[in-house]
Write a structure and sequence with these properties.
CATH topology: Triphosphoribosyl-dephospho-CoA protein
CATH class: Mainly Alpha
Shape: globular
Order of helices and strands: HHHHHHHHHHHHHH
Structural class: mainly alpha
Helix content: 55-70%
Distance between the termini: 13 Å
Largest sheet: none
């Protein structure tokens, strides 16, 4: 089971890098002081820490997240995958702990049963990787020892953070909209990378990107969202998505010149690809 989880996680991370994602790092262009290899290395070293089980039984969600972040930080020394790990870890935990349930039902169980210890370990991981634009809270700040569960912490952040919102909503938008979109365009175009580009544009156009909003404010994030909606509509209407590549590359360069990185939309693209794989493959013990 562990190998299936590792495979789904690593393949999703690599597939996302093959998708042209304007403003983010991908095989067509590096950016923001990071290279594609940083993300490949991050996926490789974080996969065992994220997905492996121990001889003593299933680790807690918080342990899984912290150990994956520690492995990444030791390898690349920067924040390449905080959002990805936060999103992937509950799915891994659900498959290991609740293999008799559907993935979505198992996720609900994992999220509802988070603890204060989970929050403390996640806070430790966040402090380690120091994501840009986190800011401070008067109460329940990540610099403090948490007095609330991880889910409660995510509920506080969910209004302004799409990763946190997945915890609160049980990944509802991923299952109801993003995965069906990915499947439909994979079938239509026969090119998973282009389908993931569409998924990325879908996320970027559906809500203001949390990473941009934290760093540059809600107005800038809303402007990027509006541009993304225009590109998304034009892109998905094409019979051959490759014809839109010059437009995407031009927008990619403009976003990077302005230091705008839609990192949360990229994280949501990874988890869409990963959950798509896990729901499509159902080996013995999975349902």
């Amino acid at each position: 089971m562990t190998s299936i989880l590792q495979q789904a996680y690593q393949q999703a991370c690599l597939a996302e890098l093959e998708a042209l994602k304007p403003g983010n790092v991908h095989i067509f262009a590096d950016g923001h002081g990071m290279q594609v290899q940083d993300f490949i290395s991050s996926a490789e070293v974080s996969a065992p820490a994220l997905c492996d089980d121990t001889v003593l039984g299933v680790r807690s969600l918080g342990q899984r997240i912290l150990q994956a972040l520690q492995a990444t930080h030791a390898k690349v020394g920067c924040n390449t995958n905080l959002g990805i790990i936060l999103l992937a870890a509950p799915a891994v935990q659900a498959r290991l702990q609740y293999s008799g349930l559907t993935l979505q039902a198992g996720l609900q169980q994992v999220l509802q049963r988070t603890t204060v210890d989970d929050a403390a370990l996640v806070y430790e991981g966040i402090r380690l990787v120091s994501p840009a634009g986190m800011g401070q809270r008067d109460e329940h700040d990540v610099a403090q020892t948490p007095q609330i569960t991880l889910l409660e912490a995510m509920q506080l952040a969910s209004e302004n953070d799409m990763v946190a919102r997945q915890y609160v909503d049980g990944y509802a938008q991923i299952f109801s909209a993003a995965i069906p979109l990915y499947h439909k365009l994979c079938e239509r175009w026969q090119r998973p990378a282009w389908a993931l580009t569409a998924v990325y544009l879908y996320w970027l156009s559906s809500v203001p990107d949390s990473h941009i909003a934290r760093k540059y404010g809600s107005e800038t994030a809303a402007e990027v969202q509006q541009l993304a909606a225009t590109h998304y509509q034009a892109f998905q209407a094409l019979d051959n998505p490759k014809h839109y590549m010059p437009d995407l590359l031009q927008w990619d360069a403009a976003l990077k010149q302005n230091k705008l990185n839609p990192g949360t939309s990229a994280d949501l693209t990874v988890i869409t690809a990963m959950l798509s794989q896990l729901t499509a493959s159902k080996p013995a013990g999975f349902s």
